[in-house]
Known about the structure:
Blueprint: E1 7-11, E2 32-33, E3 36-37, H1 38-48, E4 53-58, H2 63-69, H3 73-81, H4 85-95, E5 99-104, H5 111-116, H6 119-122
Parallel strand pairs: 1-4, 4-5
Antiparallel strand pairs: 2-3
Helix pairs in contact: 3-4
Amino acid sequence: MTQKIRKAVFPAAGLGTRFLPATKASPKEMLPLVDKPLIQYSVEEAVKSGIESILIVTGREKGAIENHFDISYELEDLLKEKGKTEFFEQVRAISELCRISYTRQKQALGLGHAIYQAKDFSERPAAASKPA
Length: 132
């Protein structure tokens, strides 16, 4: 029996030193490519492939990632008030892509450690015992 993959883990906790000085104040995942941050392209592709739930492993100074995928009431209200319906719909769609959770890698101990932070997220629930 084949099981569909429904969860994905995105390690986004690194310091971004290879992209300095651009990443001094902004996470590397939030660097724009044309009109979207890099991580949004990745999330959209994962959703298109059937992923329903994503865990993003973040680190210090990565709040911009969480803010990007969250609802922005003030911005949305302003867009609606000004009649910018298309922009409102674009902004709202980002927060409705899929279920996104976050966990923080407290120390920069490498990719393997970042992935390990997702252990509880990725574990399958124990199979229910069947009566004999």
